[in-house]
Amino acid sequence: MLMSLKWKYILLVCTCTLIAACKSGPFNLLKPSSPHQQYERKLLNAGLNQSTMGSGWISKANTLLQSASEVKVPYKETGYFAADKLDGASFKFRLERGQMLTAKLNKQSVNGFSIYMDMWEQNDNGEFKLLSFADSLGSDLQLEAKRSGDYFLRLQPELLGNGSYTLELIIGPSLAYPLKAVNRKQIQSFFGVGRDNDTRRHEGIDIFSAFRTPVIAVSEGTVTGVNENNLGGKVVWFRPKGKDYTLYYAHLDEQLVTAGQEVVIGDTLGLMGNTGNAKTTPPHLHFGVYTSGGAIDPLPFIDPVVPPVPNINGDITKLNATMRTSKSAEISNRLPLQPTAMLKQNTVARVLALTSNYYKIELPDGKTGYVSNKSLVDTRPLKTLKITANNQSLLDYPNVNAGIKTSLAIGKTVNVIGVFEDFQLIASENIVGWLKVL
Predict the structure, then answer these.
(1) Is the overall model pTM greater than 0.85, yes or no?
(2) What pLDDT was estimated at residue 95?
(3) CATH topology for 33-173?
């Protein structure tokens, strides 16, 4: 009896210890925490969420996903995160099921600051779900798209860290090509096209090559079926390891595997032919992907064409610089540029990043967007202004409730270097601030 109670006590203590570790420890034993989550937990444990900077960082993490820039992959940008700002970057882009996204992040900083990179999707109810994240060592992030739709990538630096970064978003297939010699031109019939006078739809893609060309396994997995039918002729069914779909190889002249056989990438499954309903066509492989919901487009899974990452054509020395528009300029939070607003001539903005032929900018009110890199110029003095009212306030933000940096005496001459809405950006001796237009 005493021995039984002793073991029950030990079990209770171990259980409580495990629960406490799962809830409050640096690692979640049930589900690994991302580096971003671990850093946020450190802020909370240190009570820094009560500070302006700490609470601002946590709030920024949430708003970044809500205000993501809409871009088209592949994508590349070079940006700068400033230590005295609550900076970050986020991107929304579309992936097709079967594509593999690789996010490469390179940092440059004298203090070796951390940038947290993670990938998200948004549920129908608007909630964001974490899908993947890069480790704290700066490794690449990879994600296979398990559905066609929008995905979100977030970058956020640690507090008080500063430096530049270059982000590349690269897309390619998640599976290998089913022939040893890779040639995109071999794919000549695509998913969904009409068949038999439009009485049915093509449930795969056709890859043409010479008679009895070896067709190969596109990943590690298991052969689930080897049989013959009227449409596909001699076929092989293959389930990639760890996947929830099955691959279909049809019109083979000969099958070289058996049901239940384990294969690795590159193993020969059969030889190309024109059996089944392909007897009157040149030899080709009908390649299909089947899920529990039926056939889906297999091209994104094996498409050998990897589009190149675009070049960056802006001036990298302008990163984190304050510039202004040389004329009225279109601004948008989406690329390719779809203007959502017009900026007035001489509007002031901070350059956050460069991509292709655009600058990503932040306006004085915190809003961000892309503008043509030809629309911004340096903030040299536009004109001089003589103060006509005594003790005019030079503000640290273009808002009448902002903090006062200094008061300008009547008759003083200052330089106007830009504008934003009803304010002018003023340089007076060694002080730069905002002046309300009277």
Answers:
(1) yes
(2) 98
(3) Jelly Rolls (2.60.120)
- For 316-378, give the CATH class: mainly beta
Higher pLDDT residue, 359 or 337?
359
Q: Within 10 A of 122 (CB to CB), how many other CB atoms are there?
A: 17
Domain ranges of the chain: 1-28, 33-173, 184-292, 316-378, 383-436
Q: Where residue 7 falls among pLDDT bands split at 50, 70, 90?
A: very low
The pLDDT, as a whole number, for residue 193 is 80
* SS3 annotation, 171-229: EEECCCCCCCCCCHHHEEECCCCEECCCCEECCCEEEECCCCCEEECCCCEEEEEEEEE
Neighbours of 211 (CB within 10 A): 12
Tokens of 172: 């390619």
Token pair 């309300």 is found at 436
CA angle, residues 118, 121, 127, in degrees to nearest 5 = 110
Q: Which residue is it, tokens 């091209």?
A: 299
pLDDT digits (tens, 9 = 90+) for 403-423: 999 999 999 999 999 999 999
